[in-house]
Amino acid sequence: MARATEATISREGGEPQARSRAAPSYYLSAFLDNFIPLAFVLILWEVVARLEIIHPALFPTITEIFAKMWELTLEGIFLRDVLHSLARLLSSVFFAMIVGTACGLLMGTSRWAEKIIIPPLNFFLAIPGIAIFPIVILWFGLTEKAIVFTLAFEASLSIMLNTWGGVKSVDASLINAGRALGADGYRLFYKVLIPAALPAIITGYRQGFSRAWRILVAGEMLASIGTGIGFRIFEARAFLASDVMYAGVIVIGVLGFLLERVALRSLEIFTVQRWGMLREL
Known about the structure:
Layout lengths: L1 H50 L10 H13 L2 H33 L1 H15 L7 H8 L3 H25 L3 H9 L5 H38 L5 H10 L3 H32 L8
Helix pairs in contact: 2-10, 3-4, 3-6, 3-8, 3-9, 5-6, 6-8, 7-8, 8-9, 8-10, 9-10
C-alpha cells in the first residue's frame, strides 16, 4: 500500500518535474531556431561587404556596424535613444489598450455602439498611420504629444477591432451555459464574455503594438525632436554615416522582437495558454 502510494505521488509529481526539465530545452530550441538563420544572414552580409561589391560607404561590414553600435552604447547615445523610444511606445500602447479594449467591449455588447463605431473604424484602418502624423503635428507641434497621440490612436484601432471580433465570436452555448449556472449581467460579462474573448483581445494587443512600433520610428524621423532611434537614423543619413543607420535598424529589429516575444508572448502564456484556451506553442 505504501509502495502504491509512493508510486502514485511519484507519477503525480513527475509530470511537473518533466515539464520543468523540458522548459529549458524548449527555450534553447526556440533560440536556436531563430538565431541560426539570422547568423547565416549576418555571415553572408560580412562576406558580401568584404568583397566590396557595393561601396563600403554604403554597405559596411557587420563587424564595423557592431563596433559602431558598441561605441555609441558606451557613449550613452544609444541607451538614451532606446529609453526615449520605449517611453513613447509604452505610454502610447498603455492608453491604446485602455481605450481600444473599452470601445471594443462596448461594440461587442451593444448593437447601437457597433453601428456607430464600425464605419469610422474601418475608414481609419484603411489610412496608413504615418499619413495622419502631419495633421497631428498641426495640433500639437513637433512635440512628444504628437508622437504619443498618433501611436495611441493607431494602436487603439487594431485593439478595438480584435476585441469587438472576439466578443462577437463567443459561442452562444457558453453564454447559455453561463446563464443556466446563474451568471447574469455583470457576472456574465466578467466571467464568460471576457475570458472567452481574451485570445482575440491579446492578439489585438500584439497587432496594436506592432502597428505603433512601425509608426514610432517614422514619427521620430519626421518630428526631429532630438532623441529616439528613428531620429538617430535620420540624422545619420544627413552625414552619410551608414554604420550608424544600419546599427539603428538592427536595434529596432532586436527591440521589437524582444518586446513582442518577451512581454506580449508572456502575457499570452500566463493567461489564455495557461487556462487551456490556446494550445501550447
